[in-house]
Amino acid sequence: MSIGLTLLSARRVTRPVVAAVVLVAAALPLLDPAETRLEGLPAALQVTETGAASTGWIAALLVATAWAATSGARLVQRWYDGESAWLAPTRPTRLALAAAGVLGISLGSAALALPPMVPFAILPAEGADPLLERELAAGPQRSVVLAPGDTSGIALPPVSVVAAHRLRVRLMPTVGGLGATTDARLTVRDAEGDAASTDTVFVGGRRWAEFPLPPGGELLVVTNVGEGALAVLGPQPVEIWRPSDAFAGGHLRAAALAALWVAAIGALAAAAGAWVTPPIAGLLTIAAALLAATGATGGVPALSLLAAELGRGLDALGEGRAPSRPGAGALGTAVATIALASLTVAPALSRWHREGRR
Amino acid sequence: MVPAPSHDAPDIATGPRALALQVQGLVRVYRVGLRRRPHVALRGIDLELAPGRTIGFVGPNGSGKSTLLRILAGVDRPTAGAARVFGAPPSSRAARERLSYLPDGDPFPGELQALAALTLVARLRGFRGFKARALAEEGLAAVELSDRAGTRLGAFSRGMHRRFGLAQAFLGAPDLVLLDEPTAGLDAPGFDALARLLEAARMRGATVALASHVPADLVDHCDEAVLLVDGAIQARADARELLGDRDLSELVIRGGAESAARAGEILKAAGIEVTSAAPARRSLADLYRGSGWERDR
What we know:
The complex is a heterodimer of chains A (358) and B (297). Chain A is of the alpha+beta class. Helices cover 50% and strands 18% of the residues of chain A.
């Protein structure tokens, strides 16, 4: 397989203007001046800030997906349009030429997943609103139910706290009180028993209560100060989160998930282009991508698997958490898609203009 | 009913001493239009060519010259009949290792710079690392494109594209060179470059097949010429014989208009009719050299 041909194929997908459009699409939600419009609504502002990262990624992925499908669909048509005239008499087999082309399409498409990461890679960590990663989980294995007025203490594991550490407690209203909802007071005490921080949260359903972890905190005291019963949900209802020290605050993992997704889209479009004209192949691929992204039935299984993993990553971003690294399943699915696309494209390169003449 | 494609005619010679080109009963039928009407591009071509020979194909537009070369290059395939290149099917690896092809038009990747594109071609032909780059540099020099090595092919003029095509066709000294309209769009220095490349190919014993509408291409470079009309071979002969007019002769004399007038009188006195007399043309390359073209480059 020719590396030069792969790079040429990749270069045709990764055009600077397309990469710029992807970058702008990703950056627009971050640049949106929501702070001025939502001044005085801190809760809404927090939602907007945490959602901006995932919204940017989704916008960038829409552009990258559409372009990958369009570019991939043209691979075989390029052969019919004249590439065959200089490639056919060379040494590589048609399968090797097809594999180089499809791999190039996939690599070029995958490269389009990198621009959305740029703002997070170049901004200082404190300015980029770093994503969080779970460091420790603590607490009893079984859930604890607190009647109104009851208190429960959970020892916090020793951790060298920095300013951006967050403490999360999983809470839920439960039966046994006078109301369907309740309020919980969360107090972190230090070694001397002094309150290092206190927060009161409304518990209307199953939720995470999240607040900054004060330095020196050794004990979390949960008090049911409402009228309903409160459950501190086990196992290990307390989690300590720290800023991700991954490259670009964890956005590289999101880029990796997105790269696998668009790489598979590009390969799938190339395979479709072996059977139908480029416009139809592109539209079919975009339709398959939408089916997979929305979780609808009847789509391409490989895309559904990748879409599910990408969806989990985007959900994590939306909640301010660093996504997980791509699993072996996602990686294998993308590689298998590229390989199958190469096998589909190769016979098309042995045909001639579908036996018609331009 | 269109016969099934076949590359494996049993009576075609194979092996190291095989003919450079061997074609038997070659038919190519295209399906055109919405109704898929058959269009016959080649009608049972039979042809043999020994190694080291140069053959030219001539014929009106649509006579099948390009189709024949495409089939010989392994780019297209016949509807019926068989083609062999050094005893092997044109699309086989054995044939691809020995042939090169200059296609019509400019299909080369416009995104790449000339040197990068030619290096890529060299690598696809099996040359590695520095050897591939060195061959590419040599190729560009041979067609006088060294000063455009860093220019994208997409920014090339038609003639420069043709020169690039020639560079890739002769890259790595292939045993068989197939040239489709090699002089289309070439300027005078390009003609010179082509002549040098063809001479070098002839010297090393390479076989050349070219299609052209320019009689000089055939007369100057080809051992023999084939006239194709409507997909069939109408004549095959020595190029001068095929293109020569038995009722007219050209006589070149040294000297100006006075010498021509005197020669005319002498010939007339001898009973020989002179139909035209005009100053001989300078070559365009000479004209360019006289205008300081080389200094500008």
